[in-house]
Amino acid sequence: MLSKGLKRKREEEEEEEALAVDTWWLDPGHPAVAQAAPAVASSSLFDLSVLKLHHSLRQSEPDLRHLVLVVNTLRRIQESMTPPTTLPPVPNPPAAPSVADNLLASSDVALSASVASLLEDLSHIEGLNQVPQPLADEGPPGRPVGGAPASLGALDLLGPATGCLLDDGLEGLFEDIDTSMYDSELWVPPSEGLKPGPENGPGKEETPELDEAELDYLMDVLVGTQALERPPGPGR
Amino acid sequence: MGEDTDTRKINHSFLRDHSYVTEADIISTVEFNHTGELLATGDKGGRVVIFQREPESKNAPHIQGEYDVYSTFQSHEPEFDYLKSLEIEEKINKIKWLPQQNAAHSLLSTNDKTIKLWKITERDKRPEGYNLKDEEGKLKDLSTVTSLQVPVLKPMDLMVEVSPRRIFANGHTYHINSISVNSDCETYMSADDLRINLWHLAITDRSFTDIVDIKPANMEDLTEVITASEFHPHHCNLFVYSSSKGSLRLCDMRAAALCDKHSKLFEEPEDPSNRSFFSEIISSVSDVKFSHSGRYMLTRDYLTVKVWDLNMEARPIETYQVHDYLRSKLCSLYESDCIFDKFECSWNGSDSVIMTGAYNNFFRMFDRNTKRDVTLEASRESSKPRAVLKPRRVCVGGKRRRDDISVDSLDFTKKILHTAWHPAENIIAIAATNNLYIFQDKVNSDMH
């Protein structure tokens, strides 16, 4: 389940080890860095922030403050890493997918490699997660994050958010990404919606798989709709 | 900010009077009651320990009103929410005392989800000489009872009894970060990341409507959470809450039932010269406290404490650097998650000195009048009992004096997050991980 490039561990210290290469981090406001390559420094910071986000989402009840602060920091880093965007506008672009667009437009190799690794991990997700799927309590079912699910005709096949697994027949279409994640809503604690989720033991042990809510968010932040239309890159 | 190493220049010299070591668990909250006679601590294991100040004795004047354990009880237990497959921690997040209205003491204690009202009573007499029961409470054989006696109250060893009077459950979807008792003594509020509830102390099955709700319609639009809240000490309709973006909102409950729009917003514009990726994180307010006078608010963010005047929303009237030497280390502090540590802050009784904790078991005090500040350390190794606490200094390079600590040798696992100041005297309670230190000012117990 571990990806090739990224260490995904529970302990923050181990996450630090994974990024030990970048020990020369300087405060981005530091004058020395301002003239140096801010994009490279920020890339390490970006990786760290993504790891933190991931770690936060793995908690059964994420610390909302921590999560919000990490996400906002991630957005700041994103904005600084790319020049003003020249990408074609995405329909209904909330912050997350446009951030992902900028990310994809970046030619930063390290960044792409991280994203690719993460996507590869996502593709290995199997089975139901621990967190019950809330039904859409925000109105019409569909992606919680705006974007263009309609452009992915396959999503329509899933129908309204039911939290059910993909049928076997659909799996072939989404060998990279498990799109049933699109039906779950980030951060909504299970009490916010109905819970048709299955019974599962009170296992507190951390499962190796990401749960659907985490995947949903990671997907939206890192991939966006454009990514799904991208041809598979090397190493996938 | 310069530090004074000469203790004579500092307004008060603290001596270490008594320290109670609790090996069991990490202390998660500390709170004096309204007279300062009682001090409550909550810990990670859901326990509450109450200390009582011994009255000053003429026979032993050096024992100057020390604090001894008065009562210990298990407030919260770990719970498992089967519906959500979640374990609810028993850690006590906050304790707040109710103003004393009769012989009993009452306090509110809360974990992430449930608030409990506890009543603490003393029993020092018991009735003896029942007609129908014997000394052990067993019914007597009536044929052996030949005369009637009136039961009398006899003194007994003091027994402190604690009982839960109310349990306020199911009011919060998110984690409770603060509770505050209203000056009307009838209501209190509890705040989680996105909502603030108003409760009546006598009614447990429901809270009043959310008085604050900042949950966005779509959770992916969430960019800000509530971090702390407090009622105004005198005006029962006013309360303040702070956010993760560093803003304060002063709300008036008379204006609307849902206090989202009718409020004063206190926010300091970002300093462009100090801007970094971490600007937002370090601006997140971890604690907010009204002054005793009710004229000011004190906030703590990662690197500073700020005093705000209720009449000026544009910026704080005073800013004090707690540990500015960490500003160049924000990256590694972000890495280690230390940047998310939530420090509390306190006023002294006269609102002239403010106190907050830091790393390496250091805590800082700032005198608002003289603008002097001091760094002290709460550790058994560094100070002998009854000795005056020695001011500490962190050196950032340049000239280093003998007992200075360099920034790189600070121990970031030793954090003083929770501190409390006696409401009237110069007595402070410092929680250093699982140790509680109580320091008293022997020399000068007057207010400044």
TrEMBL record, chain A:
**Native source organism of the sequence:** Jaculus jaculus (Lesser Egyptian jerboa)
- Biological process per Gene Ontology, one example term: positive regulation of transcription by RNA polymerase II
What InterPro entries does UniProt report for this protein, alphabetically? Answer: E2F-SERTA_domain_protein (IPR052262), SERTA_dom (IPR009263)
Q: Which residues form a coiled coil?
A: none
Q: Where is this region: Disordered?
A: 188-210
Q: What Pfam families does this protein's entry cite?
A: SERTA
- What name appears for this protein in its UniProt entry? SERTA domain containing 1
Cellular component terms per the entry's GO annotation: nucleus; sarcoplasm
